[in-house]
Design brief:
The radius of gyration is 12 Å and the shape is globular. The chain has a 5-stranded antiparallel beta sheet. The chain has 71 residues and is mainly beta. The protein has one domain (3-69). It is built from 1 helix and 5 strands. The chain has one helix spanning 29-34, and strands at 3-12, 17-25, 41-43, 49-53, 61-69.
């Protein structure tokens, strides 16, 4: 089963902070993010990274979970 590094990022644009992270084994990147959030998921073109961004935030303040494939 693939392993994904999932981290929580938040803050004003250009000053984002990572406050939590862990490695999660899941069948897909969407499933890995679903363990942390029910927010909509946007994936990269190659499905090796994605984020679930809080739909209530703006371009100037981010509140999201990011995931990347690590193995």
């Amino acid at each position: 089963m693939p392993t994904y590094r999932v981290r929580y990022v938040s803050g004003p644009n250009m000053k984002l902070e990572v406050t939590q992270w862990e490695e999660i084994q899941a069948g897909s990147i969407e499933a890995a993010l679903a363990t942390k959030s029910s927010w909509p998921v946007e994936t990269s073109m190659h499905f090796t990274s994605a984020w679930a961004k809080n739909p209530g935030t703006s371009l100037y303040h981010v509140d999201a979970w990011e995931a990347e494939l690590v193995g």
